[in-house]
Design brief:
By secondary structure, the chain is α+β, with helices and mostly antiparallel strands. Helix content is 45%, strand content 13%.
Length: 253
């Protein structure tokens, strides 16, 4: 598996700050002229406010040697753009089939797996040799056959994906891909690391508390905020209140 960041928004930090500042100021104040301290202050503010500005920053990844099982999950993120190898027109006889680690570690399971994969790939090749259309023969291919996909996401989408796809509950291949994608983003935009955190780190709560307390090695009791949510529910539905924010110094107060 290989994840390569092939394109990204240039001067992204200034663009982020400028789009945020456009919403909260009536002056054309270019963040490029700000001090490092001011830029960092406003960046920290942005992480805890409306995320619309984050959509101006894009990242495009080339992801190779991953299974179609993984890509089936990846493309469920509807706010991304994708271009994937089309097995409707590509002869896939020579493409590797990835063995899951849990099966590779067990001799009995591995023997069953290898037999099934060999039979499927042999049948696929025979269908093509007998002039079956590629688009029909592909139906017998294993879901773990490897493929390549290009994927483009904006920073807001990556932020939301990180909260769940870095989680220990996520299937291992997806975790590995997203860890590599996150690292590739940080290499070009070091400030982006805190935008791309797993839910428990980003919010101090568990995204899947029923799962976490049973089997997550990261989970600890303070991550379960069920009592806090119940208190908040009672207080919220007992009132009707409307804030009246005012922009002060490029921040909504």
């Amino acid at each position: 598996m290989k994840v390569t960041l092939i394109s990204h928004t240039q001067d992204a930090l200034n663009l982020l700050l400028r789009t945020k500042n456009t919403r909260l100021s009536n002056t054309a104040d270019d963040p490029a002229g700000w001090s490092d301290e001011r830029r960092q202050e406003h960046l920290e503010y942005m992480r805890d406010t409306i995320k619309s500005s984050w959509e101006f920053v894009d990242y495009t990844f080339q992801i190779d040697g991953v299974t179609r099982a993984f890509t089936h999950q990846l493309v469920r993120t509807r706010t991304g753009s994708y271009a994937q190898q089309a097995m409707r027109v590509v002869d896939a006889r020579e493409q590797p089939v990835e063995t899951p680690p849990s099966i590779a570690a067990d001799e009995v399971l591995l023997a069953y797996w290898q037999t099934g994969v060999q039979n499927a790939m042999k049948c696929y090749g025979a269908l093509i040799d007998e002039h079956a259309p590629l688009q029909d023969a592909r139906g017998i291919l294993p879901t773990h056959i490897t493929t390549s996909i290009m994927a483009k996401f904006n920073l807001r989408t990556l932020h939301e994906m990180a909260k769940l796809r870095l989680c220990t509950r996520t299937q291992g291949e997806y975790q590995d891909v997203f860890r590599d994608a996150r690292q590739a983003v940080i290499e070009v935009h070091p400030w982006a690391g805190e935008f791309l955190e797993v839910h428990c780190v980003a919010h101090g709560t568990c995204a899947f508390p029923r799962y976490g307390k049973e089997s997550c090695p990261v989970w600890f009791p303070e991550l379960d905020n069920g009592a806090v949510k119940e208190t908040a529910r009672q207080r919220f539905w007992a009132i009707r209140y409307e804030a009246a924010p005012v922009a002060v110094g490029g921040k909504a107060m």
